[in-house]
């Protein structure tokens, strides 16, 4: 997916979010924005929005002298999501179709996005109820079930800290089907994306083998990922991708990818062929899988 001019205000918004996590001083926040703004004319629209956002945030980190501005928020959402785990597990186990419900639970967790959200906190319970009640705007879970019948290895691309607890429910369902799951996390802190530390804090190693993608970039920028991760990517029968940034960086690949995300910006919604706020579970349109009979409400 390519960036557009609509993305430019979001770059500034992300820089401001990072600055607010580090300091309450309005002059410092303004200095960060002024300095970051000087990068904007040189950010190519040919890049993905995630790639350009990374360059902006790196500059903000330098100015703030902080390489992980969202560390406290990540701890908060890890703890909050963990406190919900038992109830989430009961919802999945008590449903008629645990896989379908687990996908929806994982999708609900995608609202934890500190680079996009306008408010400081998220009512995860309300979001979950909404997704479970309304379902997915693009629902290819039935096709996912068919694909899993011939899938031995899944590479699961994590998105945000805290959100991984919601992912854990889906990974557990995959494991019950005899699937070997590898969970990929970021190689370095960026926004509130999950790193190895975040994954271990919520015990993701209990359900999957965890690897770093070796990249400090937002999303999954294959050209900056490690050789180890690229081998996992190539060897996987299926990739499950969480979140907008992973969609932005991978939607033009030919890999067999099942995307789970909430459209939180108009450009992603347009790329999905839907509307702002849509929650989707869908296969890669550039992939090799037949996608007949997908359900679009």
Characterise this structure.
Helix content is 47%, strand content 12%. The chain is of the alpha/beta class. The chain folds into 2 domains: 5-64, Helicase, Ruva Protein, domain 3 (Orthogonal Bundle), CATH 1.10.8; 76-296, Rossmann fold (3-Layer(aba) Sandwich). An 8-stranded mixed sheet has the order 4-3-2-5-6-7-1-8, with helices on both faces. Helix 11 links the parallel strand 5 (238-242) and strand 6 (257-262). Helix 1 runs antiparallel to helix 2 (26-37) and helix 5 packs antiparallel against helix 8 (163-176). The radius of gyration is 18 Å and the shape is globular. The model is unreliable at 114-119 and 289-297 (pLDDT under 50).
The CATH superfamily name of the largest domain is Uncharacterised protein PF01937, DUF89, domain 3
- Major sheet: 8 strands, mixed
Radius of gyration, CA atoms, in whole angstroms: 18 Å
Portion of residues in beta strands equals: 5-15%
Provide the number of structural domains: 2
- Which CATH C-level class of the largest domain is it? Alpha Beta
Number of strands: 8
Q: Give me the number of helical elements.
A: 12
| Portion of residues within helices | 40-55%
Oligomer: single chain
Which keywords apply here?
alpha/beta; 12 helices; 8 strands; disordered C terminus; single chain; 12% strand; Rossmann fold; 47% helix; Helicase, Ruva Protein, domain 3
């Amino acid at each position: 997916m390519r960036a557009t001019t609509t993305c430019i205000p979001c770059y500034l918004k992300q820089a401001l979010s990072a600055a607010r996590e580090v300091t309450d001083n309005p002059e410092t926040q303004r200095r960060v924005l002024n300095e970051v703004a000087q990068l904007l004319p040189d950010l190519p629209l040919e890049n993905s929005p995630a790639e350009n956002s990374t360059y902006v945030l790196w500059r903000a980190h330098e100015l703030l002298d902080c390489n992980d501005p969202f560390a406290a928020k990540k701890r908060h959402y890890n703890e909050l999501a963990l406190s919900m785990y038992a109830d989430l597990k009961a919802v999945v186990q008590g449903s008629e179709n645990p896989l379908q419900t687990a996908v929806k639970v994982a999708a609900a967790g995608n609202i934890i996005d500190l680079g996009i959200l306008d408010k400081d906190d998220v009512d995860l319970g309300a979001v979950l109820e909404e997704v479970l009640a309304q379902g997915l705007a693009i629902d290819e879970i039935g096709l996912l079930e068919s694909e899993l019948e011939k899938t031995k290895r899944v590479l699961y691309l994590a998105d945000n800290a805290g959100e991984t607890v919601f992912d854990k429910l889906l990974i557990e369902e995959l494991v019950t089907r005899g699937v070997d799951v590898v969970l990929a996390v970021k190689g370095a802190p960026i926004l509130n994306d999950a790193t190895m530390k975040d994954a271990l804090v919520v015990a993701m190693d209990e359900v999957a083998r965890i690897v770093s993608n070796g990249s400090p970039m937002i999303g999954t920028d294959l050209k900056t990922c490690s050789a180890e991760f690229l081998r996992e990517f190539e060897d996987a029968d299926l990739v499950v991708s969480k979140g907008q940034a992973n969609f932005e960086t991978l939607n033009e690949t030919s890999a067999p990818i099942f995307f789970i995300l909430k459209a939180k910006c108009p450009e992603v919604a347009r790329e999905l062929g839907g509307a702002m706020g849509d929650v989707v579970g869908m296969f890669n349109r550039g992939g090799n899988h037949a996608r007949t009979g997908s359900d679009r409400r």
